[in-house]
Amino acid sequence: MDSGPPLRDxxxxxxVARHLSFSRAAAEMGVSQPAASQAVGRLERVLGVxxxxxxxxxxxxxxxxxxxxxxxxxxxESAAAFSAEARRLAAPASAGxxxxxxxxxxxxxxRVALRxxxxxxxxxxxxxxxGRAASLAAVAAGEVTAAILASPFPRDLTTAAxxxxxxxxxxxxxxxxxxxxxxxxxxxxxxxxxxxxxERPPGGMWTRLAARVGPHRQHVVAGEIDDxxxxxxxxxxxxxxxxxxSLLVASVxxxxxxxxxxxxxxxxxxxxxxxxxxxxxxxxxALVQTVQECLWTR
Length: 298
Description:
Blueprint: H1 7-19, H2 22-29, H3 33-47, E1 52-54, E2 59-61, H4 63-90, E3 97-101, H5 106-117, E4 125-129, H6 132-141, E5 146-150, E6 157-173, E7 194-197, H7 205-213, E8 218-222, H8 228-236, E9 242-245, H9 246-249, E10 257-261, E11 268-276, H10 282-296
Parallel strand pairs: 3-4, 3-5, 7-8
Antiparallel strand pairs: 1-2, 5-11, 6-9, 6-10, 6-11
C-alpha cells in the first residue's frame, strides 16, 4: 500500500505557503532553511508537480500548489485530531474530582468546574457545598478530592491557591437607623447585637471581630456561619447584625437588609484549596492548577 508523502513534508509545504517564505517556515519548524527547502523538494518529486515559483526576491504558489494547499491543510488537521483523540483514549480513566466549598465562594467553584470540563482531557467536577466542619470530615474520609476552606488551616492538610475576601460591611435591617449612616464604627453598636458563630478559631476573622465589638455585643447563632446569604434572614428578622464579605454585598440585593460600610480594621476571610497530602492524583493536580487559573483571571 502506498503510504504517500510524509506528513512532515506536507506540513513544511503548508507553512511555506502560509508565510511565502522558506526562512520563516524553517524558523517555525525549528529546522534550517536548507532542510525546509529539501522537504518541499522531496514532496514535489513524490507528487510530480511544482508547488512554488522561487526567485531571489519572492516565493509564490504555482497553480498546482494553490490547488493542493486546501487538501494539505485538511490532512494536517485530521492528523492533529487523530493524535489528540489517541492521547485522550490512552489517558487513564479518571474517577472524577469532588470539591467541597462554602456557599460564599460558589461562583469560584462553578468557574473551576466549567474550566475543568474544558481541559484536554476533560474532567468532571462534582460540587459539594458544605460548611467547614462537614468539609474537613469529607476530606479526612476521602469523600472529596479537596475542599475550599477558610483559615486557619489544619496543619495536617496541604494547601494551595490562597485568596482573600474582605469583610467590609455590616448587614442591618433596612428600617434600622443604622442603615442611614455612611459608615459604622464598632463603638456605635452599643445597643445592638452582632451575630457570631460559636466556633471562632484563633487568628480567624470571627475572633478579630469579636475582639472589636466586645463580649456583651456578641450573639451566638450557630456553630458556624458559612452560608452568609442564609444568615441575612436573621438580620432581616431583627436577631442581630452581620459582618458581611464584600463578595456577598456585590451580588445580593434584598429590600429588607441594608449593607453599611464597617470600620473595624482589616477584616477578611482567607481561603485556600486543601487536601490530604498523601492523596495526590492527576485529578487533584489538575484541580489545583485550574483553581489558580480561575483566581488569576477573575
